[in-house]
Queue: 2 jobs
Job 1
Amino acid sequence: MSAMPVSLWVVVLLVALALVFDFMNGFHDAANSIATVVSTGVLKPQQAVIFAAFFNVLAIFVFHLSVAATVGKGIVEPGVVDQHVVFGALIGEYVMAYVFALERQLFRMRKNQLERRWQPLGYRPAKDIRLGIVGLGSIGRELALTAAHFGIRVTGLNRSGRPCDAVEKVHTADDMGAFLAELDYVVLTLPATPHTRHFINAAALRLMKPSAVLINVGRGSSIIEADLVQALRDGVIGGALLDVFENEPLAGDSPLWLMPNVFITPHTSAISFPEEIARVFIDNYQRFCRGERLRHVVDFELGY
């Protein structure tokens, strides 16, 4: 099968935009749109399979649906590709930006500036910072490399305990107490699965250092928000940086908004840049045409 010409790529991208608007009206309308596009003959049957997979990616990564949610609605078919592979570097930038802003006390420095106060503030070198990553998939591994580049000591936690580059030691959930107790920053990069739902609860928060900062760049369902709010109020942990929430957008009456030790961003730690998504998509399309194994395929049993 020959590669798609440039003109056909333009058609595909234009139709994808139309699908975005259809998606806003519900899954059924979007599915009908795909059927209509295929019936016109614009796409060959084999190309339609790839285009449907591209829509699956839109469902999961543009609209932030979990794999489980899309499977349950009949949207995702086996073979959908995980585009999170392009987000690792962006999330590494986000996490490091806040870690060093906190370590160098930049927020307090800014306050002092506005008050015209000359007050040198201390800080510790990166080599004395302990950062733990929960979830060592593509994002977690990239974050580990980024943090280690600055000399930060990185430990990790995953299902298997399998070693990972730039991670000094990898723990499993059975050893969570020892893992959490030594960390200055705990970064969650977990997907939304039944196994990761409410992974961080009151008991887990009590295992962390009183000065520790919890960072969530994975899925909001990983944390019991009520337990986190209470822990922050009681000084069980030092603070939180939250980019994702169980219900988005975060409700206006959530106490998290006004807590002095909480930083909130609107699910923007890693946004989708079309050229990066297209690069992965085109590579896998060409692999499909050649009958080769696709890269970054989701494991539906695991949910990621």
Job 2
Amino acid sequence: MTFAARASSQLSNVPPADDHALIRDGIRALLEEIVALAVQRVLDGETFVSVRTKDRAKSPARLKAPKPSPTRGLTARQSQVLCLLADGHTTKSIALNLDISAKTVETHRAQLMERLNIFDTAGLVRYAIRVGLITA
């Protein structure tokens, strides 16, 4: 009789209530081996990292750093003004579109230029294209 056949016949003689005990004992033995390996590696001056943790650390989602928002540091209104400026809208058109005064649009434009260290409208347009707020 082969080993597999003997093991199968022995397991079939085990009452169902003992199945849980066998599984529990098997898991306990496996965990003891893992803990012993971890302790030995640490005592040897190495680092122990579980396989699951290694796999999670290697996953592509974890390797990619989130891209910073191109409008990070800008207010929502400044971002709106920047997009409209880059789309070619005039100050008056932006003011009407956003229901604000032309002077407020000029203030937002000045704040944008200061925050982004860009000193002309063409530069703001190039910035908006570069960061993908608009397409050329």
